[in-house]
């Protein structure tokens, strides 16, 4: 046997300035927190971890006496089949204990995360503060576990690995100390929370890097590190939602999500909770996308979900805030949508509602069976959705006799629904089996405790393990982390960067060019990037001294425009870095080069720790600009030319930005009849097409084809041998002062690139348009022109030439 001290030394805890208070309060835990006693796995013996319950020995093997009856029960016997263990445990549970399995709440009822360095949040046996919605409830973890019997918590708290292990092991001790010793399941909105609140998963970058093998390595590392500090269910991914980080193509979105789920759930990792069925995130929810379109599409959304479910996520979260296939009630109350998930897609795992979705504001409408949901009591409302297949009600807080449940759910309402016969015991047991199965499969009944030494071996550097230091910024954090993980991330940072424009191959920069750097980012980020650039070339203090200006745009605001305009007024070459913001037409027109950096890893949900750069690291930023690393990313969501085109797209149809209704109908028909509900990427008129991405040193090879000018029908009268005849002929013709469209087919026989298409009237440019064309592809160019002077005009686009008559 060995012991894991639950109360770590102050030296180990004192590893980050925002969390130093924990060490100062540590002695207040001493009388409550117990050491974890480990029975090591050896031969046929399973590893056990216990703090308060006894170990019993049977047949020369050791087991935890979780219900303290001195006997080995089936559910305590790690040799038994899980289904048999479930049956035994459920048979010993009271109705109240069973009904608490329907609830999944935030630690301390606080969705913002909890400061567990305050011992009151862990151990207080009284309600110690007035409840504040969106903040503290004044109830401790002991209260929720011991008094209310809750065993599922969403935790978005901050801390180093070793700090979080102290908090989480204390919570597990409370679970072990209950009547049946049921361990606690901890979930997180943050896919990567080993270094809680400092950094998270770079979702967009893992899509645009277009390398699922590399992404899978990182997803698996993140999951194992996060599992090692005490998390069990990660509320991710949601890249199968069309318009989310995996884009709008259902085949790509589904396949990438499948790989992500498999990586999260690799051996030693956590379980994945795919969300939000059908869709809440991305560019629009399913219902909003349908409302903003002329048609309701289902096949493309479900193609992505069906492919993702091949990865076998153990949990799924619904979009309880919005309508689904039925359209007249929110998803959790929609029998058609819930049946599609359970019956058509065949999902057998845990179905969890989004947080607060059972409130009166979200539970109205008309059910498929005609039920007026607004007229239901709270027990009836809970029974309605539970009987449709919902297993857990997610909410920030919970309790009994709750007025207007929503933000706070009501345990008593489920108990009342069972007592009234609205929910059968069979249905209750079904949910208990599903949610408790996760605990058994992950081995939590044997050892729910985390080992700081093991966690640090996964997540930390040897130097940090040997001697911890204060983590105050990105540099001190990266030095503390596992160098293999850091290097994998840096590969993703580079591969996910998308080269949009590169006139005259200005990138990568030559070291003999003097550069000036400015940014719309915070001052500390700007300073860090300048420092990194200084390792490759001279960074000037003024724009006038520089050969090249690097304009880092985190948003396209007045400050960004001023940076670029000042540089252009001085005749400087301008490199625009579009830093986690879609490049605009203005950027493409004004930058000699445009580099789109998509890497961002701000903590998802909760209150993240401040002081950390969460976009592309300054060292990688400089390496990209100077060619040490190269951008290899691809656009996964087409980028609109303007906000109007963006606002009028059909959000449930890929590839339609800038298209007219006729083209959208063609795309809709193609989507409905293609094998994987995909659409072409070059039928619309976006600024940047799906799968576009330039490469250093490569250029496009543009060829123009088939110039089309407007035609008009005219009657032509001819005389011959004294007779007159009339015929209709078409002529190339337009009216003076009246706009008309011209078309040309633009081929790119080289690599992805941008060109400016110009319409010439003789020697004069009368219209131009920026066109980005994927390598080996084509675009139809449509441009509106107006000619005021009547007469014959020679119109040319590239090498395509035609004559048009402009009538008065």
Please report the distance between the alpha carbons of the first and last residues.
99 Å
Helix tally?
26
Percent in helix: 25-40%
Percent of residues in beta strands? Answer: 15-25%
Structural class by sheet pairing and helices = alpha/beta
Q: Give the quaternary arrangement of the chains.
A: single chain
Round the mean pLDDT to the nearest integer and report it: 93
Strands of the largest sheet, in order across it?
Answer: 12-11-10-9-8-7-6-13
Flag low-confidence runs: 7-25
Number of strands: 29
Radius of gyration: 31 Å
Give the overall form: globular
For the sheet with most strands, the description reads: 8 strands, parallel
Overview of this structure, please?
With 808 residues, this protein is α/β, with parallel strands linked by helices. Strands 12-11-10-9-8-7-6-13 form an eight-stranded parallel beta sheet. α3 (82-92) crosses α16, α9 runs antiparallel to α17 (452-459) and α9 (212-228) runs antiparallel to α20. The longest helix is centred in the N-terminal third of the chain and has 17 residues, at 212-228. The relative contact order is 0.09.
Q: What is the secondary structure topology, with strand pairs?
A:
Elements: E1 2-4, H1 10-13, H2 21-25, E2 36-39, E3 48-50, E4 55-58, E5 61-64, H3 82-92, H4 95-99, E6 103-106, H5 120-123, H6 141-147, E7 152-154, H7 161-176, E8 185-188, H8 203-208, H9 212-228, E9 233-234, H10 250-264, E10 271-277, H11 286-291, H12 299-309, E11 315-318, H13 335-344, E12 350-352, H14 378-387, E13 393-395, E14 397-399, E15 408-410, H15 411-419, H16 425-441, H17 452-459, H18 462-466, H19 474-480, H20 483-495, E16 498-502, E17 515-519, H21 523-533, E18 548-553, H22 558-569, E19 573-579, H23 585-590, E20 593-597, H24 618-625, H25 643-648, H26 661-673, E21 702-708, E22 711-720, E23 723-735, E24 740-748, E25 753-761, E26 764-773, E27 777-785, E28 791-797, E29 800-807
Parallel strand pairs: 6-7, 6-13, 7-8, 8-9, 9-10, 10-11, 11-12, 14-15, 17-18, 18-19, 19-20, 23-29
Antiparallel strand pairs: 1-2, 2-3, 4-5, 16-20, 21-24, 22-23, 24-27, 25-26, 25-28, 28-29
Helix pairs in contact: 3-16, 9-10, 9-17, 9-20, 10-12, 14-15, 21-24
